[in-house]
Amino acid sequence: MTTFKVPRVRYRKSAELAAELGRYQHIALIVRKAADLAHAPFADILQKRLKAQGVTVKPGAVFLTEAPDEHGTTLAVGFADDAMDTFAYLELARKLSRFRPGVTRIALLAPGLKGSAQKEALRALVRCLYAQAPLPSRQTVRTVNLPAAADVYGPGEDDHALRAAAYGNHLARALSVLPENELGPADYVKHVKKLAAENGWRFRFLDERRLAALGAGAFLAVTRTRAAGAGIVHLRYTPRKALRPPVALVGKGICYDTGGVNLKPARHMYGMHEDMMGSAVALGTLHALAQSHAPFRIDCYLAIAENAIGPLSYRPNEVVRAVDGTTIEVVHTDAEGRMVLADTLALATRERPGLIIDYATLTGACVYALGTRMTGVFTNRPELTLRLIEAGRASGERVWPFPLAEDYEADLKSDIADIKQCTLEGEADHILAALFLKRFIAHDPTWIHLDLSAGRHKGGLGAIPTDTTGFGVDFTLALLADPAFAW
Ligand SMILES: [Zn+2]
After folding, report:
1. Could you confirm whether 338 is annotated as catalytic?
2. Which CATH architecture has domain 8-157?
3. Which residue among 49, 193, 204, 264 is the active-site one?
4. Class of the 164-481 domain?
5. Does the pLDDT of residue 225 top 90, yes or no?
6. Rounded to two decimals, what is the model's pTM?
7. Which of 60, 318, 365, 423 is most buried as measured by Cβ atoms within 10 A of its Cβ?
8. pLDDT confidence of residue 227
């Protein structure tokens, strides 16, 4: 259903560049200052044209020109400085990674840069290259301008890790862009089952019958109207040797969100086939961690359903009972994400993970608060807040924290049930949604909740060239790789 096709990458010594020059149709290079161009191929031409065209050399600036050789090789130059963070490097590298038709071989270099600056620049270029792997498309005629091979001139990287991360992100995006008529709940579950078999993960599926037996009334309120294979997928990756406590990854997988009887207007419904992105990010993260042989057990829970409209649809003012016994007063049927996640989180925390991370395109309020460049993050361990921001900075997938202050919960007080699903006013809905979810986290594991406001950003974001970003895989990998992060 999805394939990950990327160029072959080879790391080479800078001294070998001169002999290879004639083989490239595109050379992308990152430098700090105009003087660094003295170390670049076609140095004279680059410096002359830079001056002639009056290009202002400043961090983030890009200069594109053509070499006077037989291919008319594209020379894509980007300027960096010491103050640039990973996100800024990726934004720059992405602009240097647009290939023209017929490109077969490219070179990536950072002339004049040394040590960690050189590594950061080259890593950004390789990440942007891998992010170009084409997504599924149903266009009859389609051109993909992606080289078959790339030579990176600089010290070798852990290419396996970069590829695993890129593959995980690609998996998340590829599933997200598939239309609902190809990736409805039943198709999605089937695809995940196949992926689990290929990767040796244990696969369990709690279908609607089993969820009913468990008493998962919050989940089933959403799926009642359409028998289309909804349920909770539970995947388990077991390491050869577990060195750390188990981690649970949970994702919202609403394959289409009409809003339910509180029907969305057209402008807000369009694009709602991507309302399963949270589950795809959880799956992509599991894939990347498993490929890198993570030394801890990972349980991945995908809450797969559709928020459809029909005679059996759940309605405002209904009271339903979640799997942990909590009664919920339904207020707005478009707040279905927190309903399916309530039961999924309750079931996931029964297995006593040390850490639980959930991903969901959950609220419009988070987008209003942050825009679509960063994702909102919540945690029940406020002392982790700076570490979360730092993982965002290190990965280039930036997050920003919101409070889980308990006094906000007064807004969710119900006259008839234990808790209201949400409010009609919608004020601070991202905070109320997180507080609602917190109620279903049993046994107090470290909990991190990502409200994926950056799941979609027009024109791409960081390394990602498509509007659909698959945000969360790289953030999570950076967080879990932080040696100071204990769970
Ligand atoms: Zn919704």
Report:
1. yes
2. 3-Layer(aba) Sandwich (3.40)
3. 264
4. alpha beta
5. no
6. 0.97
7. 365
8. 63
